[in-house]
Design brief:
six-stranded parallel beta sheet
Length: 285
C-alpha cells in the first residue's frame, strides 16, 4: 500500500469513528452507536425475589430517567422477572404503580399474560424501526419467554441485532435456569458488564451501607415520595420470613446496584458511586 493510499484509508477510518461518536452529543441519551431515544425501548426487568435492592433500584431508575438528559427515554418496567432462586417474593405493586403509573407489568401475578403484554409493546417498537434494550435487574427466565414469543410472532426479525440484554450479576446468571440463560445468550445481543455492587470495576458502584438518604430533602416531591416508599418497603421486607438480608439496607444504607445495566445502556456508566449519583441527579436540583 502506498503512503497516499494509507493516508486516505486512515482519514476514512478516523472520519467514520468521529461520525459514530457524534451521533449523540450534549446530553442526548445513548451509549455510542447503541441506544436511540427516538426509536428504542428500555425494558427494566426487576425480579424482586428475595433481595429488596430492587426497590431502591426502582426509585433510582425513575430518578435517572427524570433527569433532563434522559427524559426522552421510552421505558417500560416489569415486576417479578425472577428465575429459579428460592425464597419469598417482595410485593411492591404500590411502589411500581407510584413510580411507573401504567408503564409497568406484573409478571409475578401472571407470567404468561405479562409476556404477551410486553411482546405487543416490543412488536410496536420493532415495527417502527426501534430496538429492545433489556436492563436485567434479576434473572433472564422472563426474557427468554419474551424472546420466544417475539420469534413466534416475527420469525424473520433479526433478534440478534434488535434485542439487547444487559446483565451485571453472576448470582443472577446462576439463579436463571440454564436453559433460559443459554437461550438468551445464543439468541440475543447479550452483554455482561461488571458488577454494580463494587466501585472502580468499570460499572457504577451503587451499594453503600454508609449512605443515609433523607427522602424529605429531595426537592422533587414525586421523587421524594418514591424514595420514601422504596426505603420503607425495603425496611419492611428486608430479611423477613427467610428473605435475603441485605446488609447495606439493614445498616440504613442504600443498594440500587441493579441500576448499573441501565446506566450502561444509556451511556451513563461513568457515574462512580452513590454519592455522585445523588450529587448529579438529585442534590443539584
Amino acid at each position: 500500500m502506498t503512503n497516499l493510499n494509507y493516508r486516505v484509508l486512515l482519514i476514512l477510518i478516523l472520519s467514520f469513528s468521529f461520525a459514530c461518536k457524534s451521533n449523540f452529543q450534549d446530553g442526548e441519551v445513548s451509549k455510542i452507536g447503541f441506544f436511540n431515544p427516538e426509536k428504542d425501548l428500555l425494558l427494566a426487568n426487576f425480579d424482586c425475589k428475595t433481595d429488596v435492592d430492587d426497590l431502591h433500584s426502582v426509585a433510582a431508575f425513575v430518578t435517572l430517567c427524570s433527569d433532563s438528559s434522559f427524559d426522552k427515554v421510552n421505558y417500560h418496567a416489569v415486576a417479578g422477572t425472577y428465575g429459579i432462586q428460592e425464597g419469598l417474593y417482595v410485593p411492591a405493586n404500590e411502589l411500581f404503580q407510584l413510580a411507573f403509573g401504567d408503564d409497568w407489568t406484573d409478571a409475578h401475578e401472571n407470567v404468561e399474560s405479562a409476556v404477551q403484554k410486553v411482546k405487543n409493546i416490543a412488536n410496536k417498537i420493532f415495527s417502527d424501526g426501534g430496538d429492545l434494550w433489556i436492563a436485567e435487574a434479576g434473572q433472564s427466565d422472563f426474557s427468554a419467554q419474551l424472546v420466544t414469543a417475539i420469534k413466534n410472532d416475527s420469525p424473520n426479525l433479526n433478534i440478534k441485532r434488535r434485542v439487547h440484554i444487559v446483565q451485571h450479576s453472576d448470582w443472577n446468571e446462576k439463579s436463571t435456569s440454564p436453559e433460559s440463560l443459554n437461550y438468551v445468550k445464543e439468541q440475543t445481543d447479550y452483554v455482561k458488564i461488571p458488577d454494580g455492587n463494587a466501585i472502580g470495576n468499570g460499572s457504577p458502584g451503587f451499594r453503600s451501607p454508609e449512605y443515609t438518604l433523607r427522602a424529605s430533602s429531595i426537592k422533587n416531591q414525586r421523587l421524594s415520595d418514591i424514595w420514601t416508599l422504596a426505603i420503607d418497603l425495603g425496611n419492611q421486607y428486608n430479611g423477613k420470613e427467610g428473605r435475603y438480608n441485605n446488609e447495606a439496607v439493614s445498616s440504613g444504607g442504600l443498594d440500587f446496584s441493579d441500576l448499573s445495566e441501565t446506566c450502561w445502556i444509556l451511556g451513563a456508566e461513568s457515574i462512580k458511586d452513590v454519592d455522585q449519583f445523588f450529587n448529579d441527579f438529585v442534590n443539584k436540583r
